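Lab channel / #folding
Pinned by the channel admin:
"Please post every new chain as: sequence first, then the structure tokens as a reply. Keep commentary short and put observations after the output so the thread stays searchable."

First post following the new format, from NK:
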Amino acid sequence: MVRYRRNCIQHGTYFFTATLRDRRSMLLVEHVEALREAVRHMLDQRPCTIDAIVVLPDHIHAIWTLPEDDADYAGRWRLLKSGFTHAMVKAGIGLSRNAKGEYNLWQRRYWEHTIRDEEDFERHVDYIHFNPVRHGLVDRAIDWPHSSLHRFVRQGLCSSDWAGTEVEPDEKMYGE
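Reply from TO:
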């Protein structure tokens, strides 16, 4: 069995990609409120800062900064994934199980990258916010509703025409 080594740094900042097993699935956006609830539950149990995030139909990209004296992002992902999985079961979504009896909703592993510096951080934030365009889901990044780009625009960290044509902000779109 391959033993994966993770770079665990207390108070570290990390880029993640977590993916559903079925890459054709739309569950994450079809049940985005259940996902948000799973994230809220994870943050209640194991606080951290979500610096940037985008939810796509079958995967999530996020940047998290962990608190002082804490390097356990794996526990946070376990809480988030299991919370969403249990919400799907409760909603009656038919999920298969593997030989161990575990639900086959999420890919077992996730991608993790330790953010090295401000330039690396900015490059990964841009990647997160541009990802819906890259996947052909929208023509302009601002048009994807499940992205922290809307928070960045509200906070004046970037303009609404970032990676596209400027539009008037729509408060209903932000959902916060």
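NK: The two ends are 43 Å apart (CA to CA).
TO: also worth noting, Residues 51 and 63 are 5 Å apart (CA to CA).
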